[in-house]
Design a protein that fits this description.
The chain is an alpha+beta fold. The protein is about 30% helix and about 20% strand. The radius of gyration is 24 Å and the shape is globular.
Length: about 525
């Protein structure tokens, strides 16, 4: 029998099908720039791309970044900890009050015992779950972290080796894994085959170098971050045109870092191009090792003046901003440096002549770079452009091109290590949203390899003093001023060859809805869904 359907009923059905909740179905597939799936051990590798894709998806930290806005800068907000405070009498101790009701994907509680377990995996060498590989992916990002102990079921005391106001920010990088899941295998290698965290996405399947599949965790404690899509699939695609072809063919719905010369074509075919200036910079990090030409301040300044940053921006389809330092002018940390980083090839030649180089004695430098990788934008094209700029002022640049993971590991061992192959600079881009990542790990003399990524062996007592002053300042406004003084020193010493700041371009299918591109290296994938 035929039953007529009223117009109101039809409209109601349409409305139901077009609400975000009803659209929380389908599979979101992303083409990453990484050459392999980042580690799923709870402490990802592949730099911050690993944190973005296998950290913030499946795991949580005590503190986290607010990624909800495309307009305002991201700040650190509560994660598994509802609140925290430094001990007024002993500023090496912090008290973290944990969130009640958060559970791991296996149904076990996220409590103080679980949190301490995760601190011990990178700090307690005699603990059965301690793992040096996890240490290498964690402690260089928080070198003052020294311990954690349970106060009660939902309170943890965290200790640092010295007063460190950066610590709550650093702890965004210590992800919490289920102790119960680890105990079933007693091996992080085996745990990684079926990882269990407390994040908004649950592990489903991993095929190395091919794909990582996750599904929505409906029981996630933060209801605003319960994923809108049913499934998330990550695919490693280090080559830019491969990513574009995968998007055009419908193999993926979203690609990171589309090559600039493909953006007009993608737009014309109805794809979304999203971008947003955020705290991320793309430089060459210089070696200060005695005997290296880059140990000479005039050489470093000359190389900074040789680069046509507007030309690089054109090369990138203007998906970048020119860099005058670690952070741009107007930033609370910019300060008032005296050295003005700009395109001035004649002054560059003059400085090189003063350093003893010229037509009869060209400066020769070697730079380790990657062909692709986390946050590296379009490294081959950009580096070749810079090579021509530098050639024009009398600098011959030789590239040592490495796979991203090899380059990243070399970054940790330092310019004195044989793996650096005599390089005078290394090209690794990095996020600048917190003061440790932007400054301390590069310029504090205690951060030389293997403790952190002072790759160039910068040994500057003035920088050490400025880093200590910023780290020991717990008043936010005074800390900004102290960091500004440090930034002045970094720019005036031309400690890096500053090139551009990234705007994070992405290309998305028109079917992708709900994505909010925050002003941060990390992004919240839980808001995106397929219509």
């Amino acid at each position: 029998m035929h039953h007529p359907v009223s117009r109101l009923a039809v409209l109601g059905l349409v409305a139901a099908l077009t609400t975000p909740l009803a659209l929380a179905q389908g599979t979101l597939r992303i083409g990453m720039t990484a050459a392999d799936i980042p580690a799923t051990t709870s402490q990802p590798d592949s730099g911050f791309e690993g944190n973005r894709f296998t950290g913030w998806t499946m795991f949580d930290a005590l503190t986290m970044w607010d990624l909800s806005s495309a307009e305002k800068p991201s700040t650190v907000i509560p994660g598994l900890a509802e609140s925290w405070a430094v001990d007024a009498k002993d500023k090496t101790k912090w008290i973290f009050k944990l969130r009640k009701g958060a559970k791991f994907h296996d149904g076990t509680d996220v409590n103080a015992d679980a949190i301490v377990f995760n601190f011990e995996k990178v700090l307690k060498k005699d603990a059965p779950h301690y793992d040096a590989r996890l240490v290498g992916q964690t402690l260089p990002r928080m070198p003052t972290l020294s311990g954690a102990k349970k106060i009660d079921d939902y309170t943890v005391e965290v200790a640092s080796s010295e007063p460190d106001s950066f610590l709550p920010i650093n702890l965004t990088n210590l992800f919490m894994a289920s102790p119960t899941a680890w105990a079933k295998t007693k091996s992080w290698t085996e745990f990684a085959k079926a990882p269990v965290g407390s994040g908004p996405w649950k592990f489903v399947r991993l095929v190395p170098r091919e794909r990582l599949e996750m599904e929505r965790y409906a029981g996630y404690w933060n209801k605003a971050r319960v994923p809108k899509a049913e499934k998330l699939v990550l695919m490693p695609m280090p080559e830019g045109n491969t990513r574009v072809n995968a998007l055009l063919s419908g193999q993926v719905d979203w690609i990171e870092a589309p090559p600039s010369d493909t953006m007009a074509q993608l737009k014309s075919r109805g794809y979304q191009i999203t971008s947003n200036p955020y705290p991320h910079t793309w430089p060459w990090q210089f070696s200060f090792v005695e005997g290296h030409p880059t140990a000479n301040l005039k050489v470093r300044q000359a190389m900074n003046l040789a680069i046509d940053r507007d030309g690089i921006r054109r090369l990138l389809g203007f998906q970048a901003l020119p860099a005058k330092g670690v952070v741009p002018p107007g930033h609370p940390w910019y300060g008032n440096p005296k050295f003005d980083i700009k395109y001035d090839p004649e002054q560059a030649k003059k400085l090189l002549a003063e350093a003893g180089y010229g037509p009869g004695k060209p400066l020769k430098v070697k730079v380790q770079i990657s062909a692709s990788g986390s946050g590296q934008m379009q490294p081959l094209a950009m580096n070749e452009f810079m090579q021509q700029n530098l050639k024009a002022v009398g600098v011959d640049v030789e590239f040592d091109v490495l796979v991203w993971e090899t380059l990243f590991n070399n970054w940790r061992v330092g310019s004195k290590d044989p793996k650096s192959n005599g390089a005078h600079a290394i090209n690794v881009s990095f996020a600048t949203q917190d003061p440790f990542f932007a400054f301390a790990r590069f310029y504090d003399s205690r951060m030389v390899a293997p403790r952190s990524v002072n790759w160039g062996w910068v040994q500057d007592p003035e920088m050490d003093k400025l880093v200590a002053g910023a780290r020991g300042e717990f008043d936010a406004k005074k800390r900004d001023i102290a960091i500004g003084k440090l930034h002045e020193r970094v720019v005036d010493q031309a400690a890096m060859l500053f090139v551009v700041h990234d705007t994070g371009p992405r290309a998305l299918s028109s079917k992708v809805k709900g994505f909010v591109q925050s002003k941060n290296w990390f992004q919240d994938l839980s808001t995106a869904y397929i219509q």
